[in-house]
Amino acid sequence: MSFLRDQSSQVSAASNPQGFKRQEAIWELFTSECVYFLDQLMVLKEVFLATLTNLHMRNCLTDVDSWRLFANLNELCLVSFGFLNKILHVIKDTLEIMEGGGPTLLELLSKAFQESVCHCLQKYCLNYSTALLYLDSLKPREDFGSYVKWCERNDQCRRLQLRDLLVAPLQRLTRYPLLLRNIAKRCQTEDETRGLQVVAEQVDTSICDLEGKVKWMDNYQKVKQLRDALVWQPVWERDKRAFFPENLKHLLKAVTLENLISHRSLLHEGKMGLTGNTKLNDVYLFLFDEFLLITKIKRNKKVCHSVVLLSNLELDHLLKEGCTFTVLDQPVSLDRLQLKNIDQLNASTSGLPHSFIIMHQNRYQQCIGAFILQAASESAKKAWMSKIEDAVTALLKLDSQQPRVKSSSLWLESSQI
Question: What is the dihedral of CA 25, 30, 35, 36, to 10 degrees?
């Protein structure tokens, strides 16, 4: 660093303003990477991860999975340290020989972001949401709480909490395109400018790809939890008019719907009111990419007997409290669904504000089910109707391009039959 300070006088804003600005932009990339590496990654590694590893060796907190909390932190540290060293060599070369430093910088950044930086950060970011959930599940434990508090009191943390440090790699990834474009604006050759813009676009593409993977992973985790919480009633329980002798019921039990949602995308979910004969029943709706599930919430008394369920509880909270969801009637395939709005006049007359109707039709266009659903507000009603309409449109468009094929796990009866 002393060498850099001594050599920095070679470039001045007066003698070479463009070169000076370029040098400042490179220096900003370098110094911000130093802060990221020393004040965030190394603190996570040397304070939190090292302490947890030491506790494991002493048979303490042995059930706490360090990978689920910190993922590939060691790899992140190695990649960032190597990146810093390479940038440092480029800065030295640029200060000593002003011409010829640009292509070396471009080559370095192209190779670093293509081969290591983006890939390593993507791996960490994919684990981030799971790490937070895991951290929240460990917080109630007194022994784990003592470990976190002891680490956070370390001077190296600078009053930052574990959660603040865990998010640092995500923030760093989103900052790289800004830093790269800042250098590109100050380059002295068009080739270098275009090259750095291409690298910035590659990082942007990596971020977009990561967002898609994170959404997929979040959906996968949520659907996986939901699959275990769904209760599919047999036909003789779902329809009281159906009669099956006990000695014949085993013939129907072979058919299972547990894997019906395994490969689906959960588009929207939330609590609604279902109009019954005498009262409004609380139900929970799950809108998937191919069908709609209307379920009744059942509380697990052993788990959540002290928890008061409020009208605005979300799925994560309900699953955490051990609640189950009993599927009413049957899945409503979106290509069999008709959506009817209840206007304000009819809603006022019937005493059903913020309501709409879902009709379930069979392949002969016969209505085999009708549900009057009531939202908490007019905006919530519009949101639900919009989500359902968009899902129906998307499915019909997909079916027109590539009809669904019957298979054991993915098939739903199509309207094209």
Answer: 100
The DSSP result for 88-105, as a single string, is HHHHHHHHH-STTHHHHH
Domains 2-228 and 240-401 share a fold: no
What is the identity of the amino acid at 45? K
Q: Kindly provide the b/e burial profile for residues 301-331, where b requires at least 16 CB atoms within 10 angstroms of the residue's own CB.
A: eeebeebeeeeebebeebbbbebbbbbbebb
**Beta strand pairing call for 291-298 and 332-333:** antiparallel
Ordered by start, the domain boundaries in the chain are 2-228, 240-401
The neighbouring-strand residues paired with 285 are 270, 294
Q: What is the mean pLDDT of each run of 10 residues along the chain (417 residues)?
A: 48 64 88 95 96 95 94 96 90 60 73 91 91 90 95 93 94 93 88 91 91 82 84 78 76 65 88 89 94 90 41 67 88 94 89 93 91 94 96 90 55 42
The pLDDT value given to residue 103? 46
3-state secondary structure 300-327: CHHHHCCCCCCCCCCHHHHHHCCCEEEE
- Taking a C-beta distance cutoff of 8 angstroms, is the pair 354, 380 a contact? yes
Per-residue tokens: 242? 């159906």
Contacts of 39 (CB under 8 A, 6+ apart): 156, 158
Q: What is the value of pTM for the model shown?
A: 0.63
- Is residue 227 a contact partner of residue 262, using CB atoms and an 8 Å limit? yes
Checking 255-261 for CB contacts under 8 A at 24+ apart, the result is 256/232, 257/232, 257/331, 258/227, 258/230, 258/232, 259/227, 259/409, 260/331, 260/409, 261/223, 261/226, 261/227, 261/230, 261/286, 261/288, 261/293
Residue 263 DSSP SS3: coil
Q: List CB contacts of 109: < 8 A, sequence separation 6 or more.
A: 180, 196, 199
Q: Could you tell me which residues are beta bridge partners of residue 292?
A: 287, 332
Look at residue 301 in the predicted model and tell me its pLDDT: 60
Q: Name residue, tokens 């001077």.
A: 155
**CATH code, 240-401:** 2.30.29.30
Taking phi first (over 0 means left), then psi (-120 to 50 degrees means alpha), and beta for anything else, what does residue 414 get? beta
CA dist., res. 413 & res. 417, Å (int): 8
**Six token digits for residue 50:** 């090292």
Asked whether the beta carbons of 358 and 371 are under 8 A apart, the reply is: yes
Q: What is d(CA 235, CA 244) in angstroms, rounded to the nearest whole number?
A: 9
Tell me yes or no: is domain 2-228 CATH 1.20.900.10.
yes
Cα(336)–Cα(395) distance, rounded to whole angstroms? 11
